Amino acid sequence: MSSESSPPAPPPPSATLTPDQTWLTALETRRSVPAARLGAPGPTPDALARLLAIAARVPDHAALAPWRFIVIEGEARAALGALLAGAYRTRNPDMAPEKREKFAGIMSRLFPAPLAVVVVSRPNRETMIPLVEQELSAGAVCLNLLHGAQALGFAGTWVTGWAATDPEAVRLLGAGPGERIAGIVHLGTATEVPPDRPRPDIGVLATHWTPPA
């Protein structure tokens, strides 16, 4: 990435943090916007550099950076979609033709948003850091991308599916041996924000530990 796209240096950390209502409201109201409802404008090169820097500020035991980014934008979106559609047809020869063509069509239109960031999980298996910790760090990167996008005035969605799990599709996306796709994060400007979905009852999910009897 060019020096013109380098993100600004973050402010020094404060010893005392005070509640920020704007930030809290953003966290309390964040929601995903389907890729088909993400239009232009997408993040500029400077905004993208800032987003990736935000994404990388996640818990990372031993500072391994067990993840990397693949950016898909411009004409590359349609080119990759065509390759994924062809791979879907080849990988599913026994599927009913109509069903196969339906899902191949979905693959061909997989990148409708102006920009997508593929977050690749690349755990270091030669360290003592548990694999699950490294994979969770990659998941945190995906969520940080969504929070950063919202803070910059964009919207996004984090998806996986066939394109993120099939070995040939994963290869086409650019992942190598020993790597997995943690998520495909589509980013753009919301053309329509869907209504919020029901949220979990925290009172049911949260308990307080007590000593065993």
UniProtKB/TrEMBL annotation:
Pfam families: Nitroreductase
InterPro entries per UniProt: NAD(P)H_nitroreductase, Nitroreductase, Nitroreductase-like, YdjA-like
Names of required cofactors: FMN
Annotated EC: 1.-.-.-
Keywords carried by this UniProt record: Flavoprotein, FMN, NAD, NADP, Oxidoreductase
Residue ranges annotated for the Nitroreductase domain, each copy included: 40-188
Highest rank taxon of the organism: Bacteria
UniProt-listed Gene3D superfamilies: NADH Oxidase
UniProt similarity note: Belongs to the nitroreductase family.
Name of the protein described by the UniProt record: Putative NAD(P)H nitroreductase
